[in-house]
UniProtKB/TrEMBL annotation:
UniProt superkingdom: Eukaryota
InterPro entries attached to this UniProt entry: Methyltransf_25, Methyltransf_Superfamily, SAM-dependent_MTases_sf
Descriptive protein name: Methyltransferase domain-containing protein
GO MF entries: methyltransferase activity
Origin organism lineage: Eukaryota, Fungi, Dikarya, Ascomycota, Pezizomycotina
Organism, scientific name: Saxophila tyrrhenica
A Pfam family matched in the record: Methyltransf_25
SUPFAM superfamilies, per database record: S-adenosyl-L-methionine-dependent methyltransferases (SSF53335)
Domain Methyltransferase: 70-163
Length: 218
């Protein structure tokens, strides 16, 4: 049997906190430290990181409401913002929020965002209702990061009626941390209409998959 190649950035992965929504300071410090090497590590062949492209294709399939921007929630160094621009269209306006100011500084250098702000997705967002035509969240709803509450409800709140919410949710936490139940709750309440919860490649070289959640704001 052929063994998997070692992961680039393994030392940082090993330091990710185990509990979601509980240790924001540790997560922030980790990603501030990792920021300068993050793109090189995640784009290394040992990962095959395709989450941003998968999410961008889902947004493109639905489209973005005219005159409204895309919110990249948990934008990190901007890999998803780049993918949205490449796949959805160069003219689409993208804003980003992230916990780590170090990651935001790297994202700013990519020149794909209208604005970038620090925000903790484990808390309510300081964004008005229906401000965005689409919300994309890649790599943030996973172990030791952001849990389903209040993030998924907040994503729906800031999306305009008819807009789309696309998020990658690590397969290992989809049920274990209650993302599936929160999605069902939002749909029962009439806040969203779920279009897909299919598994999609995430870190393909490691055979890691994620639920590619696609919801339309009602």
């Amino acid at each position: 049997m052929t063994s998997k190649p070692p992961q680039a950035g393994q030392a940082f992965f090993d330091r990710i906190p185990s509990q979601s929504n509980a240790e924001a300071d540790k997560c922030r410090d980790l990603y501030d430290e990792w920021a300068s090497a993050y793109d090189q590590d995640l784009q290394h062949e040992s990962h095959g990181y395709v989450g941003p492209q998968e999410a961008a294709r889902a947004v493109a399939k639905h489209g973005v409401k005219d005159g409204l921007a895309v919110l990249d929630a948990g934008c990190g160094t901007g890999l998803s913002g780049v993918a949205v621009k490449e796949v959805v269209g160069a003219d689409v306006v993208v804003d980003g929020v992230d916990l780590s100011t170090g990651m935001l500084e790297v994202a700013r250098k990519k020149n794909v965002y209208r604005k970038l702000e620090a925000a903790d997705l484990s808390k309510p967002l300081g964004i008005e209702d229906g401000a965005y035509g689409a919300v994309v969240c890649v790599g943030t709803l996973t172990e030791g990061h952001v849990g389903p509450v209040p993030a998924l409800r907040e994503f729906a709140r800031v999306t305009a009626s008819g807009g789309v919410i696309v998020a990658t949710i690590k397969e290992s936490v989809w049920k274990n941390e209650g993302h599936d139940m929160e999605v069902q709750r939002l749909e029962r309440e009439g806040a969203v209409r779920v279009q897909s919860t299919a598994l999609a490649p995430y870190r393909a070289a490691q055979d890691v998959k994620a639920v590619l959640l696609t919801m339309v704001k009602t």
